[in-house]
């Protein structure tokens, strides 16, 4: 291999690099002092090969060190390449890429969710990924600080959407809609501290279902809870419990306990942390940070630490103080009716009336609910995974009116499925069980057993594609049959349609089952129906 050419005026002072000789130290210094960048890069490459060759030959340590020192001197002389831009190859904090395997899991989860939404008669909409900043401002309480604001791009102050509920309310008001049952699956953005292992991200999907319109009390609310239970049961991610409360009960409780009106929302935010920290810590925050009197905090604690079923609702309706608060009585009356409907839907055993549930978002006005896993899956080889709530929602009757010029209200109730957390659970389970996940839906590979049959393979696969069959072939003129069969096993393709010279004469195709290795001759005109019959079972990936 010829080495780099040096300036002709000095070539007599330095021999070129033939394949068997390398630079000594004096030649190296001379090369470094006189060479242009391209020549230096050649020296660095060749010296690097010299070092690698010595290591492969297990040369002496001193000799290797000497050659490495030469390489480092050359690299120092070369210096950084100012013309080349250096990229940091990483995703932004709180985001992730999805591999084909992960996407297959995600699509399966989405299919379960969407089929349930459609079963309940929902239409689908979409809205922009960013909204006017004023649309989002003041709707999320203390979480408003997590909104991503965009740089001014010509007169409009914009922010990335924080959830799908506020854009939905804006959509209803803008289009003057008073009645719709819709679902919306899209990405939202929160400037939060991400916890990737627990399914918390800065960019993530939400799957929302909402019913807007004036209806009799608690019927739409009960259906939302039914949908939540159907989806979580279908996904088989473990036992779950849906906590239910009502913002009117919370506000009534705060009022009878002596919480000032101006502190309702901020105390509500503290109560919402009870599922994560102890009452002592929550009380400390209420008193120390938010200025609530200790005796008032204790009275709040007596109420918000209670949970139960319809019997607790009835007990609170008899509470001497709470029963005197109009808001609380309205909320308790609706919850009692809700439990009747939930019993008829067969899901009352999955529901718990929990007075600590607060849901920190400002726009909730009535029933609120949140689904949590009772025992995160811990199967063989799996670490317990604390992923928090996996679905939540509630009633927000005033949000649309905030956008309507005349303040016309459209009552709404809805739910959101925490798909990112569900993905984390399903992915961990598949890894622990070492389950193979199909990343394609290919039904058949068109193969050949002999050479010079590419044209016949192309003809056959075109027939299959035109008939709606999901088919592949290897991109080689004369692939070996063994390689084609191995590809099927690796990709999970269940069938192979083998084209051969004898089969072409007989007007048949040899159809092979990859799992059983059984082969049958199928008339060409019957091939499509036979493939459909054999692959009619739905593909399962989790």
Helix and strand layout, with pairings?
Blueprint lengths: L24 H10 L2 H20 L4 H18 L21 H20 L3 E2 L5 E3 H4 L21 E3 L4 H10 L5 E10 L13 E10 L6 H17 L4 E7 H11 L6 H8 L7 H11 L4 H11 L2 E2 L1 H8 L8 H19 L6 E4 L12 E7 L15 E7 L3 H5 L8 E6 L1 H15 L10 E5 L5 H13 L4 E2 L8 H11 L3 E5 L1 H6 L1 E6 L5 E5 L3 H8 L8
Parallel strand pairs: 1-4, 6-8, 12-13, 12-14
Antiparallel strand pairs: 2-3, 4-5, 5-11, 6-9, 7-8, 9-10, 10-11, 14-15, 15-16
Description:
The protein is an alpha+beta fold and 542 residues long. It folds into four domains: 54 residues, Helix Hairpins, CATH 1.10.287.10; 174 residues, 2-Layer Sandwich (BirA Bifunctional Protein, domain 2); 137 residues, BirA Bifunctional Protein, domain 2; 93 residues, Rossmann fold (3-Layer(aba) Sandwich). The chain has 19 helices and 16 strands. The strands form three sheets. The protein has a nine-stranded mixed β-sheet. Strands 13-12-14-15-16 form a five-stranded mixed β-sheet, with helices on both faces. It is extended, with a radius of gyration of 34 Å. The N terminus is likely disordered.
């Amino acid at each position: 291999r010829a080495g780099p050419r040096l300036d002709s005026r000095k070539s007599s002072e330095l021999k070129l690099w033939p394949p068997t000789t390398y630079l000594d130290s004096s030649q190296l210094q001379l090369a470094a002092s006189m060479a242009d960048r391209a020549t230096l890069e050649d020296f660095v490459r060749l010296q690097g090969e010299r070092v690698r060759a010595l290591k492969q030959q297990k040369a002496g340590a001193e000799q290797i060190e000497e050659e490495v020192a030469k390489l480092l001197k050359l690299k120092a002389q070369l210096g950084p390449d100012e013309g080349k831009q250096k990229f940091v190859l990483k995703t932004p904090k709180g985001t992730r890429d999805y591999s084909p395997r992960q996407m297959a899991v995600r699509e399966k989860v989405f299919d379960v969710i969407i089929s349930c939404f459609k079963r309940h008669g929902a239409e689908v909409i979409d809205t922009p990924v960013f909204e006017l900043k004023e649309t989002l401002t003041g709707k999320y309480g203390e979480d408003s600080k997590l909104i991503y604001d965009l740089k001014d791009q010509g007169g409009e102050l914009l922010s990335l959407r924080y959830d799908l509920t506020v854009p939905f309310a804006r959509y209803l008001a803008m289009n003057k809609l008073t009645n719709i049952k819709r679902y919306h699956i899209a990405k939202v953005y929160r400037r939060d501290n991400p916890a990737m292992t627990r399914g918390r991200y800065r960019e993530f999907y939400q799957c929302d279902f909402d019913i807007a319109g004036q209806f009799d009390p608690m019927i739409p609310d009960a259906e939302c809870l039914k949908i939540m239970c159907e989806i979580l049961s279908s996904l088989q991610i473990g036992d779950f419990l849906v906590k239910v409360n009502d913002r009117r009960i919370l506000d009534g409780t705060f009022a009878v306990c002596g919480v000032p009106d101006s502190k309702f929302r901020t105390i509500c935010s503290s109560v919402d942390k009870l599922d994560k920290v102890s009452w002592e810590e929550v009380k400390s925050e209420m008193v120390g940070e938010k200025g609530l009197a200790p005796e008032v905090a204790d009275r709040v604690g007596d109420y918000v630490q209670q949970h139960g079923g319809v019997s607790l609702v009835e007990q609170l309706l008899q509470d001497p103080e709470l029963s005197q608060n109009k808001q609380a009585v309205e909320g308790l009356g609706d919850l009692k009716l809700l439990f009747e409907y939930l019993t008829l839907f067969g899901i009352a055993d999955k529901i718990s009336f929990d007075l600590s549930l607060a849901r920190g978002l400002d726009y909730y006005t009535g029933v609120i609910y949140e689904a949590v896993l009772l025992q995160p899956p811990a199967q063989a080889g799996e670490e317990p995974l604390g992923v928090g709530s996996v679905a939540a929602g509630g009633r927000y009757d005033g949000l649309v009116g905030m956008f309507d010029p005349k303040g016309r209200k459209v009552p709404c109730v809805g739910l959101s499925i925490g798909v990112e957390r569900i993905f984390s659970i399903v992915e961990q389970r598949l890894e622990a069980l070492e389950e193979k996940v199909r990343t394609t839906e290919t039904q058949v590979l068109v193969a050949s057993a002999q050479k010079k049959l590419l044209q016949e393979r192309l003809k056959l696969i075109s027939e299959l594609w035109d008939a709606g069959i999901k088919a592949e072939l290897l991109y080689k003129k004369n692939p070996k049959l063994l390689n084609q069969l191995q590809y099927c096993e690796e990709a999970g393709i269940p069938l192979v349609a083998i084209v051969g010279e004898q089969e072409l004469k007989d007007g048949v195709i040899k159809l092979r089952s990859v799992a059983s290795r059984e082969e049958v001759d199928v008339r060409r005109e019957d091939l499509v129906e036979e493939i459909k019959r054999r692959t009619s079972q739905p593909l399962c990936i989790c």
